[in-house]
Amino acid sequence: MENIFKRAGNDALRENPNSMVYPRVSDINITIRGSDWYWAVTAVMGAATLVFVALAFRVPRSKRIFHYITAAITMVATIAYFTMGSNLGYAAIPVEFVRSNPKVAGTAREIFYVRYIDWFITTPLLLLDIMLTAGLPWPTILYTLLLDEIMIVTGLVGALVESRYKWGYFTFAMAALFYIAYNVTWVGRKHANALGSNIGRTYLMVGAWTIFLWFLYPIAWGLSEGGNVIAPDSEAVFYGVLDIMAKPVFGALLLWGHRNIDPATLGLHIRDYDDAMHPSEKSGFGSAAAANNGATGGVTGANTAPGVHNDTTATAAV
Ligand code: RET
């Protein structure tokens, strides 16, 4: 048994012994003030969801994609914040650094894993909002979303690990964040600018806002789950302000930017059952003929001058 510790180089079983896995109680926790703040953020997220859904109903169904994605983001956050306000959705994790500061003195910290479940669902949706605005090719979008999921999952695992190995996970997450930032700031911007100045301007606004905010998250993590420097109440305020900026404020900016952009311009041709058909599609079985005509039917057909079936005119007509 001793021999497994004597092998040179690999300290894994010594640093993370199985004896450390037992149920624990946390002694570095949020107070009632932290809970109050989490409830306040719950209300903000819930109100934003109602506003985004209400805005969706003001435009035709075929133009609601960004409203729906954005409302889904704040809807999920509402539930996550409800959970944290209730002092639920956490694990008690022994701290790597035992501090003397009374605000963080103790041996096990309350780590809200529900935060990461929220981010696992909502950060890909945020990126989708951004990358669909740029009209990026779908393989680039999918790959960036995968890197984003890696960032969130490694962040969660790092937060739940008690030894210094947590910083290994932090490093993986940072590498993923840099890749995401490269795609958003560089690749996305080139694509968005190519689609016209209105789209380029909207993209620059939401893209720059996002990348600025996203780089503040690892700082919050380093001070909270990572380094146990700030109290769980301060962690609540830090992440809460960031989440409000990155979700409801981001969503408002995005939908404002999209008010004059037809999703069809971005290659998002969405069909609705009551779309008017192009005269040439009305022959035969009417709507059935239109439904089978993937290339020209739906939104494009509805908004295009007779005989013209390309994307540019479809957009210009709206
Ligand atoms: C973690 C931990 C370690 C390193 C990095 C992280 C990045 C997290 C980010 C989260 C973004 C969340 C958003 C939520 C919206 O409400 C996981 C904190 C890089 C970028 C935008």
UniProtKB/TrEMBL annotation:
Belongs to the archaeal/bacterial/fungal opsin family. It is a multi-pass membrane protein. Its main location: membrane. It comes from Glarea lozoyensis (strain ATCC 20868 / MF5171). It holds the Pfam family Bac_rhodopsin. Keywords: Chromophore, Membrane, Photoreceptor protein, Receptor, Retinal protein, Sensory transduction, Transmembrane, Transmembrane helix. PANTHER family: 30 KDA HEAT SHOCK PROTEIN-RELATED, PTHR28286. Signal peptide: none annotated. The keyword NAD does not apply. This is Family A G protein-coupled receptor-like protein. GO terms for molecular function: monoatomic ion channel activity; photoreceptor activity. GO terms for cellular component: endoplasmic reticulum; plasma membrane. The keyword Membrane applies. It is found in: Membrane. InterPro entries: Arc/bac/fun_rhodopsins (IPR001425), Rhodopsin_retinal_BS (IPR018229), Yro2-like_7TM (IPR043476). The chain crosses the membrane at residues 37-57, 69-93, 167-187, 199-217, 237-256. One of its GO terms (biological process) is phototransduction.
